[in-house]
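Comment on both lines for my students:
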Amino acid sequence: MSKDNQSVVNNAQNRQQEQPLSGYMLIFGYMGIFIFFAGLFMLVPLLVLIFYPDEITYAPYFVIPGMVCIVGGYVLRIIIKDKKMARLAHHEDTVLVLLVWILTIVVGSLPFLLTGDYDFTRSIFESTSGYTTTGLSIVDVTSAPNIFLFYRSLMQFLGGVGIVLVMTSVISDRYGVRLYHAEGHSDRLMPNLAKSARLILGIYLLYTVLGILAYVISGMPVFDAINHSLAALSTGGFSVKATSIAAYQSLSIEVVTMVLMILGGTNFVVHVFLLRGKWKRVWRHGEFRLLVLLLFLFLPLMIISTMRTLGHGFWQSLREGSFQFLTAVTTTGFSSIESFKAMPLIFVSFVILLMLIGAGFGSTGGAIKQHRVLLMFKSMYWNLRDKMMHSKTIHTNTVNKAGDKVIVTDKDIQNNNVFVLTYLMIFFAGSLVFTVAGHPMVDAMFEFASSLGTVGLSVGLTSTTAPNYVLWTSSAGMLLGRLELYVVLIGLAKMIGDASRRKA
């Protein structure tokens, strides 16, 4: 080979070596990082064995999948190690987030599956409910080992703050920012993404510890306090009691739970203002005002319905109504009553509406989100105002977000309304699937609103005896709700489109 030809070959090889890693090879490389951390996370429940050594027989159910993930993640990580990496291309961030969540859910189901007590469908259902912080469960908590109870709460802790957020706390802005937004986090508390993630984790851990202390002071056993604090702040709702918070029959425990639920359902930017004493900015926050408005609209009617229908006294009705209002609107799913079947229909209807509205943007909660509902009603007012005034005056429409006025464009309104309409269409479609199993429409709407909104309140439709198609519908709803619909829909469309192009 001549020197000129050799030079051409060498230049081509150099260009190939300098070509940044992109596409699905880059996605799989990133997944290796997440899988590695997922494996480490699987080993954390083993700490319970220090206090419950008789449960050592359950250790392999966590060690085996944990070590497989650690090794598998390390192997995938080699793909991008010491290589120049391109930025994630259009919609590749949604593909990565979707794949990370699906893989985490599958891995998370393995301890349940390995016990032999749960089939694949029910294992996936429990794992999905945990990581999406829904709280619907097919586990009998009265007989489940403590290591599994703690594992369920840990899943909600990680899922609440966000799998991607936890991982981006250790990677750079360049590779994490689009994933951060794709997972549903709308705000950065600090200019640097990794610092923002660490600040959120710090706030989250602070509230969790304070919640544990408050529960213990209120008379809750330490193990119960740890689990309920993790689940309340993550707006998850997994309990170690079959009848949830109602099992304790304690007003102080209910108050602690309500405070934690409010904190979990509030935008983390607002938490920063609270901790810094900026109360005026908190009050000006549009979602906070909407929450107060909903409280004054719904709570009196919920109180009156239980007083007139069930004959409860005012204070008992206030206690029941306040807790159920907050557990629904924050999408937590704890309950202070034994069964919603016994509650008045109007009471149940209000809970369904609250589960559809959901928590604040940038919180650990799910559903449509209060900001979208606020924007939808404001856009209705703006439209009516412009039609009635018949004026050519151009108005600047704004909403107050985290204490700042944000200009709203027609495109923003259109996107918002399309999201709400899409959400409601999926809600009604899922509810119809539940009716196929022979359930009344109201019960079906209640259960699927709980699944799609990642709430966890139940009228008993998603039990261990439920048909597989009901559990899979519920699992799909939980994932759609946690990842804000579009991440799932766009991610699936992207992967299907890429596969079709490869075949062509």
User: Anything to note?
Assistant: Confidence is low (pLDDT under 50) at residues 170-175. The first helix runs from residue 3 to 18.
